[in-house]
Specification:
Elements (H helix, E strand, L loop, with lengths): L1 E6 L3 H12 L4 E8 L2 H11 L6 E6 L5 H11 L3 E4 L6 H11 L2 E4 L14 H4 L2 H7 L2 E4 L7 H12 L3 E11 L13 H8 L3 E5 L2 E5 L5 E6 L3 E7 L4 H8 L5 E7 L2 H12 L8 E3 L2 E3 L1 H8 L13 E12 L2 E12 H8 L3 H18 L7 E4 L6 H9 L4 E4 L7
Parallel strand pairs: 1-2, 1-4, 2-3, 4-5, 5-6, 6-17, 7-12
Antiparallel strand pairs: 7-15, 8-9, 8-12, 10-11, 11-12, 13-14, 15-16, 16-18
Helix pairs in contact: 1-13, 3-4, 13-14
Bound molecules: NADPH dihydro-nicotinamide-adenine-dinucleotide phosphate (NDP).
The site of NADPH dihydro-nicotinamide-adenine-dinucleotide phosphate has 31 residues, from helix 1.
Length: about 400
Amino acid sequence: MGKCMIIGCGGVASVAIHKCCQNSEVFEGIMIASRTKSKCDALKEKLQPTTKTVIETAQVNADNVDELVALINSYKPDVVLNLALPYQDLTIMDACLATKTHYVDTANYEPLDTAKFEYKWQWAYREKFEKAGITALLGSGFDPGVTGVFSAYAMKHQFDEINYIDILDCNGGDHGYPFATNFNPEINIREVSAKGSYIEDGKWVETEPMEIKRVYNFKGVGEKDMYLLHHEELESLALNIKGIKRIRFFMTFGQSYLTHLKCLENVGMTSIEPIMYEGKEIVPLQFLKAVLPDPATLGAITVGKTNIGCIFRGKKDGKDKNYYLYNICDHQECYKEVGSQAISYTTGVPAMIGAMMIMTGQWNKAGVYNIEEFDPDPFMDALNKWGLPWEEDFNPVLVD
Ligand code: NDP
């Protein structure tokens, strides 16, 4: 059917690439382009004998628009799937505009010097993408991503209006380390050490980091502490889902993780302010990343399950209604299938599906859109088919 260029070759990209190779009817060709070409070549060597998808590799600095444009022009993909870091979103969008190529990502743009997750920078490209006749699909991971698809599906099939959404992200996995992050440590720590926030009656309410704690009993995992975090999909869902009064995001953390994080914070290791060290400028958080376990190595040793989903409260035919949509994913099953743990898996599978929606023309409108702005049905079918089956509960325990 077509060709996809995947930028980045880390934890999430590796899963998406495995999945594209399983889906060679749609992904006839892929190019893996990243900063370190040897990683792309190693993956090609592993996967090429197993798939009809023709794999090519390239080195690229995704901070450089000219380099990206030259590479896109030489490969001519139908879609560029950005699985590098949020810092590269705008340069890759610029390159897509210059070459009139569709764009998909899994995380919103973040400037390097401020840990601030907002869509305003990417939404500013709306008119340009419309005029160029190309699509930018923002946030096609799990959260954001599947959480937006779940919301659109609930709105389409279960509710006349949705008033409350609680997104619950539970990782019941255990890797045996006292402290490690399941995806890029820099991005992960920036996210969890930021202030919390949620949207109520159209306004952001800010909390101290980890100020709001709840306990929830997750199917497949059991009882876990979870904490309210700021999360990027709150901003778009509050605009795109009819009738929203409040929307919150909770993530589970174990006590060991939190104690280590507090200590690292207290000594300044999570700071993103550059400091001078032996005549060289370093960013403490980037240095910390270098000494922590590489998330890619956690797959083999992580056991347990994730359970991520959304609890909706709203109205149907004039009556109150509650509805919970979630996916349970097993770390070891993921590792057996694609050599990664469930956090990368639950992000990489929807990234492949998002690219597929655009390549097959099932999602086809010019402009910049968040994932909940598309028809959720084909994506929901694809989740069941490609490894992230969803479950529903019409009488869920609610979060107070
Ligand atoms: P990794 O750090 O494992 O991978 C990032 C990859 O991008 C690496 O291969 C890296 O290259 C490459 N890269 C970084 N900078 C550049 C550059 N300037 N030019 C070219 N390549 C570059 O991260 P993850 O795989 O864990 O995360 C990938 C993305 O997925 C992130 O944006 C993250 O925020 C997002 N994410 C989204 C989730 C969701 O549910 N929506 C959940 C988890 C993650 P090198 O190998 O040389 O370091």
